[in-house]
Specification:
Helix content is 39%, strand content 17%. It is built from ten helices and eleven strands. A hairpin with a 2-residue loop joins strand 10 and strand 11. Helix 2 (23-34) runs parallel beside helix 10 and helix 6 (127-135) packs across helix 7 (137-143). The model has no long low-confidence stretch (mean pLDDT 87).
Length: 257
């Protein structure tokens, strides 16, 4: 049975606008609608039409290691000289990128890495329980697979200061990992390239079988509890006498109430 709020109670419910109906926006909107807000979402491409449509769909509850780690500063010169390195800076943008690069290096200090790792652990560890709560058991089981994730490498792994810190953090956070040899990996994946010599499996991690279906299911849940999704481009938000207005550049409007 659904109990509708009285007119007086409905009038007291705050209006909330959520810009973007991707995975983050949809999850946030459902929680806000459940908490008693009147939520309207604005999305140009439709639910999950942007980055939440084309992605690997990983649900990494045991991923708690930030990208910046101690010792990476010494690797930057070599990375910039390689065409396939994890870091590339377009020459005309070097000066513009410098503040970001300094902040990234600052984030790689040991105390900052530990703080970031603890925050990531707290953020990610709830993900599977959160999806089950938002989707319901039946839909969750149809779109989420809990088969773990496998990370592989094709060169000898050197134990560095960063590697030791990562191992310490995972032990402290009780992250389940399974180191694997190349032979053990090929027993699981016979067609894997021969140059793979080892890897590590995270058995608690998961993935969605279809990112578009996941966001579509969340959108259905959101609409079912009274939420609204409007096809509208929002490229700017600015304060005004009634609160905030938003819309495309040159066409800022204020939503009702």
């Amino acid at each position: 049975m659904t109990i509708e709020p009285s007119a007086e109670a409905a009038a007291r419910r705050p209006d909330v606008a959520v810009v973007g109906a991707g995975i983050v926006g949809l999850c946030s909107a459902i929680h806000l609608q459940r908490a008693g807000c009147n939520v309207t979402m604005y999305e140009t491409l439709g639910p999950g039409g942007g980055a939440s449509f084309g992605n690997a769909g990983l649900v990494s509850v045991d991923n708690s290691i930030p990208f910046s780690l101690p010792g990476m500063a010494w690797q930057i010169p070599g990375w910039l000289a390689q065409r396939d390195s994890p870091l590339a800076i377009h020459a005309p943008h070097v000066l513009k990128a410098w503040p970001w690069l300094l902040a990234w290096l600052q984030a790689g200090r040991r105390q900052n890495v530990i703080a970031a790792s603890q925050a990531l652990r707290a953020l990610h560890s709830y993900a599977l329980k959160g999806y089950r709560d938002l989707l319901g058991d039946e839909v969750f089981e149809s779109v989420i697979r809990r088969n773990g994730q496998l990370y592989i490498w094709s060169s000898a792994v050197m134990t560095s200061r960063a590697d030791r810190l990562v191992a310490d953090l995972r032990r402290a956070q009780n992250v389940a990992i399974e180191p694997m040899t190349g032979q053990a990996i090929r027993a699981m994946i016979p067609d894997l390239a021969r140059h793979v010599i080892g890897g590590v499996r995270f058995p608690s991690n998961a993935n969605t079988v279809n990112p578009s279906r996941l966001t579509g299911s969340l959108a259905e849940r959101f609409r079912a509890i009274g939420g609204h999704i409007l096809p509208r481009c929002v490229s700017r938000i600015q304060p005004n006498e009634k609160g905030f207005g938003f819309g495309p550049i040159g066409a800022i409007t204020t939503p009702p109430r």
